[in-house]
Amino acid sequence: MFPVAIGLNHRSAPVEIREKMSFHLSRMKEVLKELKDYPELEGVVILSTCNRTEVYAVTTNVEVGAQSVKKFLASHHGIEENVLNQYLYVHTLYDAVRHLFRVTSGLDSMVRGETQIIGQVAQAYQQANEAAVTNKAINVFFQTALAVGKRVRTETLIDQHPVSISYTAVELAKQNFGELEGKGILIMGAGEMSTLTAKNLVAAGASTVLVSNRSYEKAVLLAKECSGRAVRFDDMDQYLEEVDIVISATASKHFVLLPERMQEIMKLRKGRPMLLIDIAVPRDIHPDVGEIPHITLFDIDDLRGVIDRHHQERELAAVNAEKIIEEEMLLFLKWHNSLFVVPTILALQQKGQKIKDAQVERALEHLGGLTPKQEKIVRSMANSIVNHLLHKPITNLKEYATTSQGHLYTEILQNLFDLDVAEEDKRPNLMVNQNPGQVCHRRAE
Q1: Residue-level pLDDT at 167
Q2: Distance in angstroms (rounded) separating the CA atoms of residues 78 and 64
Q3: Domain residues of the chain, as ranges?
Q4: Which residues define the annotated binding site for substrate?
Q5: Bridge partners of 209?
């Protein structure tokens, strides 16, 4: 069983191609069954997100299996193969394993270390399970990859450094006030940035979110999305007296909050601190507002400075993540190849034993009248010849088992000696836990 990974992503294909190649969640089960019926595909998973469409499969014939996947993608989406091929990447054997490890770890994403992808991979694997198109090899392939993705995030903390404006704004609010639950929060504006900020606030535990916008109807719509409350733009001053945090992202061409206005509001607040985060371009809050006592002001440049530092932190974490992946690849490689090698060695030894026994019995019949001691010498010599003959191939095969070509040497040996290795013995003998992200298998010591 050999893994292949074929697909396209944000680097290999423009958005208009990625849109055509996406799969709708509602039809995934029947699509998976359609794919599984193609030649030489023993187990399959389809990963489809806004930035990538990938087919993972295990096959007994890499060339035919890869061609089957390409034909399926071209046929299903109505794109000519020669056109599609210019956007596809193809990973086979251990390159396919390494690719999935990097995907689940967030190292192949548009934003390094992003968290969402590991859940998307787990969902794709679960859909394949429900469609009954996986097998033992696919199970271990994906469960190991999910475990690797979790290990990378746990050990490198690569996803703990926010790199989006809206998320960083919320993180700054948490740093200044600790838990956001119970804190009064006002969002000025109801555009895309405000929407993202509102969602991040709710995810961070904010329970009291007010939304103000010049178009009250838009404020109402956003407030519903974040279980908040819309307030009219003209009534904003009374709410500025009450809230602890203001995040501003309006489309105004002029300053919305001026120093004089905020000085009056701070008098009414009687020294209660206030955090203002201005993520609008042009700015909504006059920079002098940040000089008023008890007000802390961050603007878009402050946030970008934080994001730049976080990007650097993620790049450093990515270096450590790559090291973890190589460690896991070595373990997976040794374990996987040993599963091919052991039954082959047993089959080779059994064949040698069978030939030896047949030839010894034939020789003894022709010789006749040997003493027990002489017969013992003949049998011992035959054993010695077979053991010496097989010693080097077996020793070398065990060494090759720890390399990326181990399974190929195993198949060559099977063909050279015409070994009868049962198909089930060729497959990984896996103990699979159906809980995504956990895998129990024996690795070569």
Answers
A1: 78
A2: 21
A3: 2-161, 165-298, 328-426
A4: 49-52, 109, 114-116, 120
A5: 185
CATH of domain 165-298: 3.40.50.720
DSSP 8-state class, residue 78: T
| Tens digits of residue pLDDT in 376-419 | 999 999 999 999 999 999 888 888 877 767 777 888 888 899 98
* 3-state SS assignment for residue 66: helix
d(CA 48, CA 243): 42
| Helices marked H in 157-242 | 165-177, 192-203, 216-225, 236-240
The greatest distance separating any two alpha carbons of the chain, rounded to the nearest whole angstrom, comes to: 121
Count the Cβ atoms, other than its own, within 10 Å of residue 410.
25
3-state helix vs strand vs coil in the chain, percent to 5 = 60, 15, 30
Residue 258, SS3? coil
Spatial distance between the Cα atoms of 151 and 118, rounded to a whole number of angstroms: 12
281 φψ region: left (φ > 0), alpha (ψ -120 to 50), beta (else): beta
Q: Do domains 2-161 and 165-298 have the same CATH topology?
A: no
pLDDT in tens, 31-74: 999 999 999 999 999 999 878 999 999 998 999 999 999 999 99
Q: Does 340 have pLDDT greater than 80?
A: no
Q: Tell me the sheet residues that pair with 58.
A: 3, 43
Point out the annotated binding site.
49-52, 109, 114-116, 120, 189-194
* 11-20, 324-333, 432-441: range with lowest mean pLDDT: 432-441
Q: Return d(Cα 186, Cα 203) in angstroms, integer.
A: 16
What confidence tier does 186 reach under pLDDT thresholds 50, 70, 90? very high
Q: How far apart are CA 145 and CA 132, in angstroms?
A: 20
Which segments are annotated as binding site for NADP(+)?
189-194
- For domain 2-161, the CATH architecture is 2-Layer Sandwich (3.30)
Name residue, tokens 């709710």: 202
Query: Could you give the CA distance from residue 98 to residue 104 in angstroms, rounded to a whole number?
Result: 10
* Active-site annotation, residues: 50
